[in-house]
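As noted in the main text, all predictions were made from sequence alone. Below is one such record, for Ferritin.
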Amino acid sequence: MLGKKVEESLNEQMNRELYSAYLYMSMSSYCTSKGLKGFANWFMVQYHEEMFHAMKFYEYINLQGGRALLKAISQPPSAFESPLDMFGKTLEHEQYITKSINELMELAIAGKDHATQIFLQWYVTEQVEEESNDNEIIAQLKIINDDPQGIMLLDRELAGRITTVPTEFSKGVQAAAKGQGA
Ligand code: OFO
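Prediction:
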């Protein structure tokens, strides 16, 4: 069973994850419009990751006898200056998500909610990976320094990213994860 404040905060975090999905879908569309198919693929894979993150919250709230309450999702930005600008904004957003996950964890610790702490542990680890992925690409983009040939080479590399999270949630996240051998 969830405490009222924890349930509210889990719902807020579900909304943030849905916004993340929206943000990366917007970035993917922008990349497509600029002919950067590989970057577009990278952000669309990230969109799927964020939907998985949101659905894990949805399922956990329901599993604990709470209500997953869907709120409005804010409009994401739709224009960017460059790939470096996009990844800078991505890292900034992920740092904000890391902070919000940490605050949620602190709330669960203060309330001695052990189940929620265990549930959130996955996100703590995931955020380390999210920020590291962004930092790696930002470092490459800084070396490339807007050189078109370098951008196209990186675009080719990013085209190879594949979705590894489940994407079919009709029977729930856990069932979907089992179906994917996750
Ligand atoms: Fe859900 O990790 Fe990004 O936002």
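The mean pLDDT is 96. The chain has one domain: 4-180. These features were considered when defining construct boundaries for the mutagenesis experiments described in Section 2.9.
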